[in-house]
């Protein structure tokens, strides 16, 4: 009897130890445990850590959706900035073509270039290009006075852009060559076409949201200060430039040299055409946003329906 009781007690203690090992997750058989010498314990723990998200996996991190999405966003941002810069440069070139057409109309220079032209007539020892560059630098100083701390250093790129602007004017003038209107009525048609092209170039530079030409940048600075329409401020700025050109002509030459009726017509209506273009652009932008929003909602509908069905189940 005593021997049976002892055997019975040892069996109960052995079963209790095995049950404790099973509850704690430790294998009863030492041979089932990973061998530290073979690296089994390290491999098992690292595999479990990767599965549980404790240890990062190099291959999965490089090809993870988050990394791919970040690279895609960076590429899209770079392409978007490149497109904006290209739009700005194209707008500057279109503006140069518009000014050349206005000059070819032979009804007076454009308002932005009228004052430098009059100064070159009054001071023949200095070229028109030199006065034009000085005029552009003066407009940059006007922007600094208006914006003060809000003036961005990147806007100083307006000066090299003005050089590119002058190159475009010379290039398109050479391409137009001897082409010119043959009558007074044809001159007005040329002037109207030049204003349309010039206004299109102005809108392109404004829409690009980068660095604009000095004249348009001054208009934009005034718009930011008084919260008015760009085209309306543009009309006021052009009329002020035309008036300043007339004043310089009377003081230096004694008559309206370089300023004619086309100068004032161009000053009065170029901003109006800019407003029309901006209105068309606003409608196209709103339509594109509404279309993209509709696409997003239609793409989200099946997900919403699927979620509602799964929640009902």
Proportion of residues in extended strands: under 5%
Helix percentage range: over 70%
Largest sheet: none
Spatial gap, N to C terminus = 63 Å
Q: Structural class of the secondary structure composition?
A: mainly alpha
Mean pLDDT score: 77
The total count of helices amounts to: 11
Number-wise, the strands total 0
User: How much is the radius of gyration in Å?
Assistant: 38 Å
State the order of secondary-structure elements, H for helix, E for strand.
HHHHHHHHHHH
Shape: globular
Low-confidence runs (pLDDT<50, min 5 residues)? 22-59, 300-313
Structure description:
With 313 residues, the protein is mainly alpha-helical. Helix content is 78%, strand content 0%. It contains eleven helices and no strands. Helix 4 packs antiparallel against helix 8, helix 5 packs across helix 6 and helix 6 runs antiparallel to helix 7. It is globular, with a radius of gyration of 38 Å. The two termini are 63 Å apart. The C terminus is likely disordered.
List the helices and strands and how they pair.
Layout: H1 2-24, H2 40-52, H3 58-62, H4 65-104, H5 111-122, H6 128-147, H7 158-176, H8 184-208, H9 214-226, H10 230-252, H11 261-312
Which labels suit this protein?
single chain; 313 residues; mainly alpha; 11 helices; 78% helix
What's the short version?
The chain is mainly alpha-helical.
């Amino acid at each position: 009897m005593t021997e049976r009781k002892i055997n019975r007690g040892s069996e109960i203690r052995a079963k209790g130890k095995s049950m404790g090992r099973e509850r704690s997750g430790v294998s009863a058989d030492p041979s089932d445990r990973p061998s530290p010498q073979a690296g089994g314990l390290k491999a098992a723990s690292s595999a479990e850590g990767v599965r549980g998200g404790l240890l990062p996996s190099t291959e999965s991190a490089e090809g993870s959706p988050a990394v791919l999405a970040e690279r895609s966003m960076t590429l899209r941002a770079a392409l978007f900035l490149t497109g904006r810069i290209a739009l700005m440069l194209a707008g500057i070139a279109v503006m140069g073509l518009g000014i050349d057409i206005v000059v070819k109309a032979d009804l007076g220079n454009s308002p932005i270039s009228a004052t430098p032209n009059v100064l070159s007539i009054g001071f023949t020892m200095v070229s028109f290009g030199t006065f034009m560059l000085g005029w552009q630098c003066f407009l940059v100083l006007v922007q600094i006075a208006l914006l003060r701390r809000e003036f961005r250093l990147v806007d100083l790129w307006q000066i090299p852009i003005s050089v590119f602007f002058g190159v475009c004017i010379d290039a398109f003038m050479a391409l137009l060559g001897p082409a010119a209107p043959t009558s007074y009525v044809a001159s007005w048609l040329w002037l109207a076409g030049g204003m349309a092209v010039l206004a299109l170039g102005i809108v392109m530079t404004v829409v690009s949201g980068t660095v604009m030409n000095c004249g348009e940048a001054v208009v934009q600075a005034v718009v930011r200060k008084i919260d008015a329409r760009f085209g309306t401020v543009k009309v006021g700025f052009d009329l002020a430039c035309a008036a300043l050109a007339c004043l310089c002509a009377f003081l230096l030459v004694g008559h309206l040299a370089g300023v004619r009726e086309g100068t004032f017509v161009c000053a009065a209506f170029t901003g109006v055409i800019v407003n029309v273009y901006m209105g068309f652009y606003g409608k196209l932008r709103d339509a594109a946003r509404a279309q993209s929003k509709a696409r997003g909602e239609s793409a989200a509908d099946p997900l919403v329906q699927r979620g509602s069905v799964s929640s009902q189940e």
